[in-house]
Amino acid sequence: MLVTLKEILAIAKERRIAVGSFNTPNLASLRAIIAAAEELDQPVILMHAQVHEEMGLCTMEEVAPIMLAAAKRASVPVCVHLDHGTDLAYIERGLALGFTGVMFDGSALSHEENFEKTKEAVRMAARTGASVEAEIGSMGAREGGNATDMECPESIYTDPDMAKRFVEETGIDALACAFGTVHGLYVKEPKLDFDRLAKIDSLVSVPLVMHGGSGVSVDDYRRVISLGISKINYYTYMSKAGAEAINGKTFTQYHDILKAATEAMKIDVANAIRVFSGL
Q1: Pairwise CA distance, residues 137 & 37, whole Å
Q2: Domains, the chain, ranges and CATH?
Q3: DSSP one-letter code for 257
Q4: Pairing relation of β-strands 78-85 and 101-104?
Q5: Global pTM?
Q6: Which of 83, 159, 173, 220 is catalytic?
Q7: Under a CB-based contact definition with an 8 Å cutoff, are residues 265 and 34 in contact?
Q8: Among this protein's residues, is 87 annotated catalytic?
Q9: How far is CA 88 from CA 91, 94, 109, 189, in A?
Q10: What are the tens digits of pLDDT across the range 164-195?
């Protein structure tokens, strides 16, 4: 069942859970995610990140029709979301393809430019009925990178008062905020600023999004969900599980590699969904 980002996050709010949001740079990961969500009867978000295209994994035009077809066939609510779109032309392409949620990532811009371009993204999405996520603050490492420095400077953490103004002035449907997580593999345990997150939740009126969700402890997942996180982006450790399923093993057929990796990713995704949903 294809739904918008706003609709799926309303489900999360009503159930007091977080919806898992997983990147799908290939068919194996997409099938693993849908299978896990249907097995557990939980909503899920499929994502295509702009950086995956830059890495040569797949283009948006190649993967979007497959993502949308899988979402429409699914027995659970599924949002098809464009993750970390860093320019408006790219987001416009995604909206034309049928994405029901888009993220404009202006975190590398000045506050003024981030505000203005986010407003434009909201206007563009309104024409197709899609929802918009945007970010104030920064997660540090880029999507798909390694979290080599967990001592993030205070300046890139989300300022609660700025977050309130950002949400009110742009009209976004979900806010990605920086409070101690980063993208990629953690080299040491992340130190999350729960007080900052609680303050942001008290000031803004839209669901909050946690990026860099892989590698966080179960207790920390549960705590951030209690403090307003309704969407958790999770990819790195799912991908790692797929790689570990074939490391050191001998396969004579490529399809056997895909089968082993898909099953391992499904198990990892299911475990994440269980935690996010309180199962």
Answers
A1: 30
A2: 2-277 (3.20.20.70)
A3: H
A4: parallel
A5: 0.92
A6: 83
A7: no
A8: no
A9: 5, 10, 13, 35
A10: 999 999 999 999 999 988 655 444 566 899 99
